[in-house]
Amino acid sequence: MLRFITSRLLQSLLALFLVITATFFMIRFVPGGPFTAEKAVTPEILRNLEAHYGLDRPLWRQYLDYLGSLGRGDLGPSFKYPNRTVNEIIGDKLPVSAELGALALAFALVIGISLGTLAAVYRNTWIDYVASTFGMMGISIPTFVVGPLLVLGLAIHLGWFNASGWYGPADRVLPAIVLGFAYAAPVSRLTRGGMLEILGQDFIRTARAKGASELRIITRHALRGGLLPVVSFLGPAVAGILTGSFVIETIFQIPGIGREFVNSAFNRDYTLVLGTVILYAVLIMALNLVVDVVQAWMNPKVRLEG
Amino acid sequence: MSAPTSAVPEAPEALEQGTSLGHDAWLRLRKNQLAVFGLVCLAVVSVLCLIGPWLLPYGYEEQKLELGASAPSAMHWLGTDTLGRDLLVRLLYGGRISLGVGLAATFVALTIGVVYGAVAGFFGGKLDAALMRIVDIMYSLPFPIFVILLMVFFGKNIILLFVAIGAVEWLTMARIVRSQVMAVKRMEFIEAARALGFGKRRIIFRHILPNILGPIIVYTTLTIPAVMLLEAFLSFLGLGVQPPMSSWGVLIKDGAEKMEEFPWLLVFPAALFSLTLFSLNFLGDGLRDALDVRSSKD
Question: Packing angle between helix A228-251 and helix A86-121, nearest 10 degrees?
Answer without folding.
Answer: 130
